[in-house]
Write a structure and sequence with these properties.
Elements lengths: L13 H13 L1 H22 L2 H5 L1 H20 L7 H32 L3 H21 L4 H20 L4 H50 L4 E5 L5 E4 L1 H7 L12 H11 L4 H17 L3 E6 L5 E8 L5 E7 L1 H15 L9 H13 L4 E8 L2 H8 L1 H18 L5 E6 L2 E7 L6 H15 L2 E3 L2 E3 L3 E8 L6 H17 L5 E3 L2 H23 L2 E10 L5 E12 L3 E3 L1 H10 L2 H17 L7 E5 L2 H6 L2 H12 L6 E5 L1 H5 L2 H14 L2 E7 L7 H5 L4 E4 L11 H16 L3 E4 L5 H8 L6 E2 L8 E2 L3 H6 L10
Parallel strand pairs: 11-12, 14-16, 16-17, 17-18, 18-19, 19-20, 20-21
Antiparallel strand pairs: 1-2, 1-5, 3-4, 4-5, 6-8, 6-11, 7-8, 9-10, 13-14, 13-21, 13-22, 14-15
């Protein structure tokens, strides 16, 4: 903070201004001597002139001096603090008032000597004392512009007036000389004040700058040290000494740089050979006048980087940075870039490096591509945290059953890859390794209190037999894995060239499925479901067919799994639903339509919205629509599944459980979900005519289902004896199969329904 500038007064910092005011009050000796001299001069001139008026001037001079003395004591007791700028101004005005009052009485005494006496000696004494006082007060108090001005005016005016009253040439001439003299004295005081204050302000600013610089340097995260041209220590910050482990109270100034470096290296437990290297490097850089950097492995896992930078005036600056955390962060980043964060296994990038390193040595190796069976079910039913814990246990088992020389990696999800160098190129090693992996991963896992069985399928490709590049070998191992999963899971398969051909056919078929959907090449067929009591067709199941331009009619068993893998099933299923509802709306009576909903469609699509859209567009009443779901739908995320089924039920749609008995669902699902109908799979009819156990199983399941309030449909009825057996069971309400009708094109259904009920006696 700086006081407001006044004319002829520099803009001072507050602390400088306050110190200048303090200087006015500080020296009491000059006040005592000046006051005493003035009193003595007044008494002497009064005695010499015989005038009581002149001698009486000693009284106000003495009183004024005494008051000023007391004022100095008061200032000392109440000295303003560094922030009391206004208070300092008030004290300055008090000092100016006291000094000016004294000057008035002194100049009045001088004026009276000229007025009341003609004695030249008296004139000389009074003029000399008054002039000396004015010059003295100006010289002492030049720091206060107001004080100099008031003192000069109050002293000069009476003196000049007294000289002019003598009406003598010498006195008048002297009076005239006093005017420019007094002005010169004031100007000299002003210049002196500016010169001094400029120096004081510059010194103050320099100290402040030095203080700020010192604060900044000592708060740097880096250590800083400077050496002169003779390699001698000049200055450093505290951080420098702390980082290097040097005592902060040590006397380092003037020490040789080599000595300081040696102490530093010793303090940080750097081996002797390493110390010499650092010192030699520093001396080389110093002599060449170039910059350089050294990394110092210090004690306690601390890593320091010493950077040397030459300066123009000679010498150099050394910066010290603790890069320990930086190196650890770099190591973590490097680890994350090369390893899987969840399992700690190498990732794809690092695995590829290892593969290429083995291949570069000319050593044959096997790449085993592992996919966990049923892992998705674990994630969907127990949650992703449980799935992550399972993956960590899988990684641990793989480490346990494989050799240290094998490289295990995780590519993401539930995909693991193993690289095994083959001794002598023997592929049997790969087969034995795959056997151990399948066996280990087939054992029960215990995760968060759950007993989990998953298993694994493995595809194997050999380098260089099945490819010479990483991408080729990996692709072929993936093809072998696909075949292993297709062959029933829990097995391993080696890559064979025709697998690639089949994969090309599969990709072509995938493209064709998408094209067929866009071009309208799919067609909905319908197979009737017959009521055993009335012989009437109650529902027709919608079954999709693909009429290919070149291959003819393609079986759903061929393209439905592919559509599910590529998620095309969502669009295809939505189209089937809309088309089935549109066709059913034109059928006579209350015959309904049953539409299969794929697990993928149920899980990833919006079934409720699709049903609402299909019913609104077709105008079909909701009770004529049945949605058939499989047991796997009920097993996945049961709360969400129950909510969706309940929303469908509220619309009035009927829900059927299709292919009951082929999956893993328990009988409890029949009770916990809002089901209207259960379709017993055709597998229950195998040997039902000859095998009493098969017959009892079929009858038992049908009776249990009916007792739970659901209607029962038996699929796959193909023979007259099967029909006869089923007709005897009161719990079986409906049947479906080729015995009554194969799936038919939509155009045949109206005539089929108009034909009326089926005469079971006439069915062959």
């Amino acid at each position: 903070m700086r006081p407001q500038s006044r004319e002829n007064t520099p803009n001072l910092p507050a602390e400088v201004y306050i110190s200048s005011v303090t200087a006015l009050y500080k020296d009491r000796r000059s006040l005592f001597s000046g006051t005493g001299s003035a009193i003595a001069a007044a008494l002497v001139t009064g005695w010499m002139s015989g005038s009581m008026w002149i001698a009486g001037c000693a009284i106000p001079l003495g009183l004024t001096g005494f008051v000023r003395w007391m004022d100095m004591n008061a200032y000392e007791r109440a000295m303003p603090g560094p922030q009391a700028l206004a208070e300092a101004r008030r004290w300055e005005k008090r000092y100016i008032l006291g000094s000016s009052t004294f000057a008035v009485f002194l100049s009045l005494w001088c004026f009276l000597t000229f007025l009341l006496t003609q004695d030249p000696a008296v004139h000389l004494v009074s003029f000399a004392v008054c002039l000396a006082y004015m010059i003295g007060i100006t010289g002492r108090n030049y720091a206060s512009d107001q004080l100099v001005t008031f003192t000069t005016i109050t002293a000069a005016v009476p003196m000049v007036a007294g000289l002019l009253l003598q009406y003598e040439f010498a006195y008048v001439f002297l009076a005239l000389l006093l005017v420019p003299f007094f002005m010169s004295v004031r100007n000299i005081a002003t210049r002196l004040r500016h010169t001094l204050f400029d120096a004081v302000v510059a010194s103050h600013d320099l100290r402040a700058l030095a203080s700020h610089f010192d604060t900044a340097v000592n708060n740097m995260p880096h250590g800083l040290c400077m050496f002169d041209a003779d390699q001698r220590f000049v200055v450093c910050n505290e951080r420098f000494l702390t980082l290097l482990g040097l005592p902060t109270g040590g006397r380092w100034k003037g020490r040789k740089a080599v000595t300081l470096l040696a102490r530093t290296l010793e303090a940080n437990s750097v081996p002797k050979e390493g110390r010499q290297k650092v010192i030699e490097s520093f001396q080389d850089w110093f002599a060449a006048g170039c910059s350089g950097a050294l990394v110092l492995e210090a004690a306690g896992e601390k890593i320091l980087e010493l950077t040397f930078q030459p300066i123009e005036a000679g010498g150099c600056v050394m910066l010290v940075e603790d890069i320990s955390e930086k190196r650890r962060a770099e190591a973590r980043i490097e680890h994350l870039a090369r390893y899987d964060a969840l399992t700690g296994l190498p990732n794809r990038s690092y695995f590829q490096e290892q593969f290429e390193a083995v291949a570069a040595r000319g050593q044959a190796c096997a790449l085993l591509f592992i996919d966990l069976d049923q892992f998705k079910v674990v994630n969907d039913t127990l949650g992703h945290p449980c799935g992550d814990a399972l993956l960590c246990q899988v990684a641990a088992r793989l480490r346990r059953v494989l050799r240290p020389s094998d490289v295990i990696a995780r590519f993401g999800g539930d995909e693991f890859v193993v690289l095994r160098p083959l001794r002598g190129g023997d592929a049997k090693e790969a087969s034995l390794t795959a056997r151990r992996i399948v066996s280990a991963l087939s054992e029960v896992f215990t995760v968060e209190g759950h007993q989990i069985v998953i298993g694994a399928s493995i595809g194997i490709a050999i380098e260089p037999t099945d490819g010479e590049t990483f991408d080729q070998v990996l692709k072929n191992a993936d093809l072998a894995l696909y075949c292993a999963k297709s062959d029933g899971r829990g097995v391993w398969r080696f890559f064979e060239p025709d697998m690639d051909v089949r994969a090309q056919d599969r990709r072509a078929l995938e493209i064709a499925v998408r094209d067929a959907l866009e071009n309208g090449n799919f067609e909905v067929f319908f197979q009737p479901i017959i009521n055993l009591k009335t012989g009437q067709t109650t529902v027709c199941e919608a079954l999709v067919r693909w009429r290919h331009a070149e291959r003819g009619m393609i079986s759903p068993a061929e393209f439905i799994p592919l559509a599910e893998e590529t998620n095309v099933i969502i669009e295809l299923g939505d189209w089937i639903l809309h088309e089935a509802c549109r066709q059913c709306a034109s059928w006579p009576g209350e015959v309904g339509v049953a539409v299969n909903i794929s697990p993928i469609q149920f899980r990833r699509g919006d079934v409720v919205r699709s049903v609402i859209s299909a019913l609104e567009r077709s105008g079909l009443p909701a009770h004529r629509l049945e949605l058939e779901i499989t047991e796997s739908v009920l097993m996945e995320n049961t709360e969400v599944t129950r909510t969706v089924l309940e929303n469908l039920k509220r619309l009035g749609v009927r829900i059927s459980l299709d292919d009951f008995g082929t999956g893993y669902a328990s009988l409890s699902y029949l009770h916990h979900f809002p089901l209207d109908k259960v379709k017993i799979d055709r597998s229950f009819l195998q040997d039902v005519e000859a095998d009493s156990r098969s017959r009892k199983l079929l009858v038992g399941v049908a009776r249990l289902t009916a007792d739970l309030g659901m209607s029962v449909v038996v699929e796959g009825v193909e023979t007259r004896p099967q029909l006869t057996l089923l007709m005897r069971q009161s719990s079986i309400e409906e049947v479906q199969g080729f015995l009554f009708s194969p799936p038919r094109p939509a155009k045949d259904i109206p005539s089929l329904l108009e034909a009326g009920k089926i005469d079971f006696d006439q069915v062959a």
